[in-house]
User: Fold G-protein coupled receptor from Clarias magur.
Amino acid sequence: MEALLQGRTERLFMAAEDFALSLLCTFVDWYNSSGQAERLGRQFAQTNTSRTAMELFVQEWHIFLPPQQMRVIQLCPILGFLAVFLTTPILLARILIRAHLRQQTRYLLLANALFSDLLFVALYMLTTCLNTAAVLMSDVACAAMLFLMGIFYSGGLFSATAIVLDTSLAILAPLRYATLWPISRTYAAVFTIWLVSILFPAASVGLFLWYHRMSPCTQHICSLPLVLVLTVSHSKPLQVCMLLTVTAVLITLLLVVAGYVILYCHTSKSGVWRGERSSRAKGTFLVHYLHLFLSVCPMLLLIIELLFYSYSSELHPSAGLWVSLVLCNILLVLPKALAPYLYGLRYRDLRGALLDFFRLNRPTAITPVCT
Assistant:
């Protein structure tokens, strides 16, 4: 055991010793392939300032994008985290404190989805802040953060899928629902969701580590957009693995949409869409469809980007960086930030807690009865 720990420690020290060399290698490969190394060399030759390779790499990050637009894009994950942090703890506390809510499958699955989204947005906000501050890390640490983000993102998607299955079963088999899906199976479903979420991104992160161990260059600025531009665009196995993973996620989301279409066709025959109940039913379906649409859009864009990397080698780094930043910082975070507001304001048992927190719950006037 001591020999094993000593071997791991030696490997970590060796990775730390290769820090400067791998950073310089990444810098040279990126800018030589983009065709801007010569222009930037003339630019820095005119300044007559001595800079290290680390300082050059950090400064070159702002060459491809205007500083103001870059700040706006990097501000989006922070705003998304603030939006989620204001509401998700309130909804989670409401569900976990109330005993009758803890005994309902839909609220447990919703709590699991909101908890996964909160962890994902918080971790992505942390990586964005570290990237903005030019904090460098090893490939193992970066792979660990990417792996955690993959787990939390998958957990939210699979929880949404479980909510659809639960709703479908409650509508299609109302008399046998309590027997087919008791509360004990809900806890088993939550455990299965986390287990599948752990296994889902494992292949992509494993190939990420393999790629950097087989190559003399390692990734030190841990940013998901940079990983797509610098790593995925140059690794065919990683492109294929991510393409299969994203395709599986997209198929899962499309199955969720198909489930809601089936529910709509089934409930339209029972008169749910007529009378006073139609407005509430339409609002519920609208919330689910909007959330699913916002979740499908980044998956489609990511597939298109991966196909560009696979079949076209002429994509300019600045264009790839723009697409990756918009995809990761805006489209991935947006449905996570809106989910607690959409579901919290839709469910009656949760709406009051949100309105009370934002001081929007007006007290009902009591009219005295004259006798």
Residues 23-59 have pLDDT under 50 and may be disordered. The chain has two domains: 2-58, 63-349. Residues 58 and 147 are 25 Å apart (CA to CA). Residues 277-311 form the longest helix (35 residues).
